[in-house]
Fold:
Amino acid sequence: MKDVDDKFRKTDTEVPLREELRPRKVTTPDGQEIDIDPLRDYFCEAKPKVHPKAYSKIVEDFYNWARANSLWILGFGTGCGAIEMRPLMTPRFDAYRYGIQWRPTPRQANLLVISGYLSVKTLKRAIRAYEQMPQPKYVMGLGSCTINGGMYWDSYNTIKRLDDYLPVDMYVAGCMPRPEALLHGFMELKRVIREGKGEGANKYAENFDQYKANQKAVIKDWDMPDYNW
Amino acid sequence: MTAFPNFEWVQIAYALLTLFIVINYGMVMTAVVRKIGARVGGRYGIPVWQNYVDLLKNIALRSKISHGVMYYLGPVFRLTGGVGLLMFVPTIYGSEWHQNFSYAGDLILALYFVFFGTLGMALGAGESGHPHSAIGVSRGLAQVTMAELPLALGVYALSLQYGTLDITKIVAAQQGSIFNWTLFTNPLATVAAMVAFVGTMMRSPFDVAMAPQEIPIGPPTEYHSSYLALMQTNRVLFPVAKTVIYMNLFFGGATSWAEFAIKVFCLYMISVVIGVVHPRFRVEQSIRFFLKWGLPLGVLAILTV
Amino acid sequence: MREILYRLKDRYHLGTPTFQRTDLCFVTVRRDEIRAILTELRDMEGFTHLTFLTAVDWIEEQLFQLTYMVNNREANLSLGLRVLLDREDATGDTIHDLWPTAATYQRELREMFGIKFPGSPRVDEEFILEGWTDLPPYRRDFDTLAYSQQTYNDRPGRVTHDPKTHMQKTLYPSYPKGAK
Structure:
């Protein structure tokens, strides 16, 4: 790694919470004084739960087979990889034949594809989207940017290791990976799910505090609840 | 026993069998239709069993989030609309098994059930609290209400023509020759109702309620796991059930499952073919379309009976 | 182009113009005259389009250079006006009343270089960065590599190859002769 100018030290200042999110006293129309705390009042702050597998191994295997053959991707593109996902719908690659579909809402998606570099600002949105997805859910990182920063290794606002912030089930290397590589990644992810190793959501729930600490270390203006349902 | 003079308990089992067959038929048919669409576009397309896998996957999801009682009841109502529509209409004419619970006034009930699911969905999606749901529901309700007008008028024309509100009797009157079908005896009513048919099949150009591109994805935005599985079931059942009504009223009904399968598929393909060649209407455009073309046709159908 | 510069030269202080092409020229002007020159260019000379407004950090001279690029569509001329600002507490003059789009450029400059534009609408709101507390990142005294190493975790095992020697080793391992 290149030598670094030691003279530069980053400053670590707290970012104040946005004004509309601060706890405050409000007078209601009928004259009562009430305390409101927007982050607590409007959101559920319960931590994610670890969901056990089905009791019977046969049932769980069967479920895993279904999950593997019906991967619904959240249509959420970050970075340049979003453009590599589009050809997958076209006649040339046609990911639909493998049961892969794109869904427009996180509630109906199982797979979050982080398609390229992730700036801190986008990371915040990616976390929100990830946490809204129902379990079990999978994360796939595309490209060197999600693995070790790639060509953004010295960027001031791009994270370097995706697995610090979200539990990643599968990486696809390349800059950018071509659609063929992506398809291979999907096949490998299917294998992982069928083997019952796609437990990223449970891993996230178990190491929740550590993931949150990592996320909050880079997202300075944390203006959302700790866990977004 | 006076209310249902011909009721026997075994009919429930028969009706459930009908439901089972129709759901499976719908599952395979919608997948086949998607596959045909893919093949036309030069793609390989989804496997024909993909609908089953998706359904199973959604049921197998581990976490569910409810937004309240009505949110839970939304998909239930929606499915009730589909099942009810099927249950009170004879699926196979002349078959004791698949006669279901049809009775003398079932046409009115069928008209009601066509609308019922949308209303239930409106309540459920409203409680989910997502703005896209609210937008989708208001668009969907406006459009379905307008599309119902030509259908209702066409159906009234039909009941005037045959002098009955009993679907079984209407089907019976159409037996014998292909020229006994309402399609030939009352083409105006048929065309008016087919306008409504295309309008309520949730396919382009009348799919602004779902609007996959601008307001992803309309009413079901917040629905997931088992809730979504219920809605998926309805999504394959409801078009078939609706097509059964049209088949019975206008296209001579079906006397066997083979005839049923062919007729439903052909009718369904009407909306598909129209859908793939037409871009989507905005909601006010589709309302105007129904008022301008569907409504006069329906009125004309009544006047000329 | 030259005629325009001659006309301007009568009344304003212009530096030596640099002609990149016949239709593209850069010229340095004084800070207190920039608004007058821009207004005149826009209203009298047909430079109706503000192509961009950007900044350069001349840290050695302790200066910021603002570059206003204006374009005359009809005559297909582009003129770049340079203004030099003191780097300490740099403050520019807002031109959002001449071109409303300038407000966005000024907001960006405020965030990325820390150049103030008093009076420009929404200039102090965050533009691209959220919750940024460090030095403005486009300033040259901001070390982006050091910042990224102090902020984001590295994955160990990353090596950097010099492309020339690396490709030579992979493709021609026995070159130069005797080496293996």
Summary: The longest helix of chain B spans residues 131-162. The CA atoms of residues 191 and 259 of chain B lie 22 Å apart. The mean pLDDT of chain B is 86.
